[in-house]
Structures are given as C-alpha cells and as structure tokens.
Specification:
alpha/beta, Protein-Tyrosine Phosphatase, Chain A, globular, six-stranded mixed β-sheet, Rossmann fold, ten-stranded mixed β-sheet
Amino acid sequence: MSAIARYYQFQGYRVAGYDRTPSALTHALEAEGIEVHYEDDPARVPADPAQTLVVYTPAVPADMAELRYAREHGYRVIKRSQMLGEITRGQRCLAVAGTHGKTTTSTLLAHILTESGAGCSAFLGGISKNYGTNLLMSRTPTVVAEADEYDRSFHQLHPAIAVITAMDADHLDIYGDLAHVVEAFKIFASQVSDALILKLGLDITPADTSAKIYTYHVDDPAADFHAENLRMDPLGHYTFDLASPLGKVADIRVGTLGRFNVENSVAAAAAALLHGVAPDAVRSAVGSFQGAQRRLDEHVSRPGLTYIDDYAHHPQELASAIAAIRDMFPGRKLTAVFQPHLYTRTRDFAPEFARALSAVDELLLLDIYPAREEPIPGVTSEIIFKDVTAPEKRMLRKEELLDCLAGMPLDVLVTFGAGDIDRLVGPIEEMLEKR
C-alpha cells in the first residue's frame, strides 16, 4: 500500500490515508508529505468523490467506517491489486509470485535491473535495504512487481516474465484447500507471455501457459537454472557458479545470508538473464544486494550476542529461516520469539508451527496477532505451544516481552512474525546494545 501511495505522490497527486497504528513506515510517509491518520473517521475522507480515488487492501475489514462511507457516497473504490494492474498495464512486467521467497526475490531482481543499468520501476512487498524504500521509479518501461496470491491479487497482472517460488497451502481462509491455491497459480501462469521460471517440481505444465517454462533449484542439476560448486566463507556468505541454458556464470557471491537466499538468487538471476541483463552485471548485483528489511535482518552482531529479525509467518518459512540461522551459527543457543499471525492460519497449521518451532533451543510464544480477523473460539497460541518440544518454552503477552528478555541470558535471539512484532525491534535492539 505504501508503494502505491509513494507512486501517486511522485506523480504529483495529493495522497492521504489511514493505518491502524503508527510505525517507522508511516512516519516515513508523513515525512515525504503524505498525510496519515490513525482513527477510523469518515470525516477524514476528502469531500469530492469525483476528484478522489480510494484504494484499499483486503487486509482492511469490510465494515471499516471510512471504506463503507466511500462505497455509499459514490467514490471510485478499488483494491490495491487492481491499482497495481492498472499501473503495470502497457509496461513490460517482470513478476515474482509464490507463497515464500517472493519479497526477497523480487527485491533482488529489481536491484539487478537497477544496478546493471537496464532500469526498472518496482513495487515491492518489503523495504529494500539498498534503497530504503519499497518503490523504485524509472523512465524505463519495465516494472518489477511482487505478485501476491492473497485474495487472488496476482490475477490482475499479465507479466512478460514471471517466477513462481512455491505453491504451498496458505491463506486457506480465502482458498479453502491446497487444490484451490494451485488452481489460482495456474491462472496466474496462464497470463505470463514470454518466460515462466518455476521452482523445480511445481505442478505447472505447458498445458497451463503459453510462456516457455524454465525450472530452477538451489543445486539440483535437473533444473535449468541451478547452483554448482556451492561453498560458504567464514562470514556465512555463499558463493556459487550458476548453470543455465544461457551459459555458466562463475563465482557469484551472495550478498545476503542463508542457503535459501542462494535459491532466491538463482531465481532472480534467471529472470534477469532471460530479460537480457549481461552475466557480469548479474554477478556484481547479486553480490551487492543487502536484502529486504525483516528478512534475516541482523540488528546486533558482536561476540556472544546476535539479534536477528525475520518476517516468517508460515511454518515452511519458519523452518527455512531456523535452518539458515543454525547453518550460520552452529553450536550456539538459539532463542526464538514468535508472534502467530491470524487465527485462521494458526488453526490451519498449528501442528506444522509446533514442529518448526521445536527446532529452537528456547521459545517465547506471543499471543496471536489478529490483523483483519475476529477471534475463533478455541484458537489461541496454546494450540501451537502444547506440541512444541523445544528444551525451554514459555508463553507471554507482547507487553511482557521486553522485561522478559532483559532478564535472560541470550546468545542468538531471533524475532519472527508478520504482525506488529516489528514495533519491538527497535526497543529490543536498544536494550541489547546497552548490555
């Protein structure tokens, strides 16, 4: 939503909007001249329907007073995904979809195109650490978009080149079951015109798309694009040779941490090479990529104490992130804080969450962040907690977390979640720096 707001501010429109709570991002928008308010008040909606476009995210409840007022008083009201579809129409769109990895992969792809000089505008689902924003603007008629499967938003996009990173069960409040998730991705695939780059093993075939299909994998030689000669340096960064149908690209050092970021790099490099970016430029840009905020985001790093924050909110994301952290810091005690996101996701994946979180040494489990949802009877963090087998575990309220951490011995600490746990990252970092 903030990228859309910034885009129209850049185009010279007056932009204003509502958010539930203040954050570093809303403060940044206000500093850029965008008016943000935090009370659901229809009086804040501009008075002229003919001159006002209302853009909303499906994360906002349908009974929100401002949204209801706009619908009842003749305003043009459209979803964020429709807005992104309108903006990208008429441009060459490179999109990254998938239930995991799409933010990092799309942010890296945009960085490769920008640093190589090929150029692009980009609408990203996270804040690029290289540029400090989720919106890149360019005169080049190429746009990189994160294609979000929530509420079938990605059906508004018609990319020339697309990546699909994963098609796991998620957003079952929308889709009901995995079969409908896969069906939605196949519809997205049918809208890709030139090249479709799939994680090896995904159930999409030439019958589903007119685009040429390529596959990628971290190191499986059966994939069209894959890493060879994979090695890790003492600082935890991987270097690899990229095998591809377009020729080998040797000695690509990954600027971000974790084996899964090697795979994200393979996917982004594949899209960039198929777009026409030179191999040397791809190698250089992958090495200078700093990642997206809240993706294995290291905040404190000194002997005996490391603090990482990560957006993981699905069991597979948690498992991958925990494995990457174990890989980077072998033998060290890992303390994880997890804030579950949504009652429905907690209900649908409680056993899988418990299994993923059992891989840490110590778990601090917070209450569920509801976002747009009303409580579901019997669905609390307890349904995860009871099955966690980590050596140490406890449940607590978000308000208790800082005091709890202040009194604990810590080695590697990581905070996980997609709710409002990010509001505590600064205070946690400040507290740890004083140790």
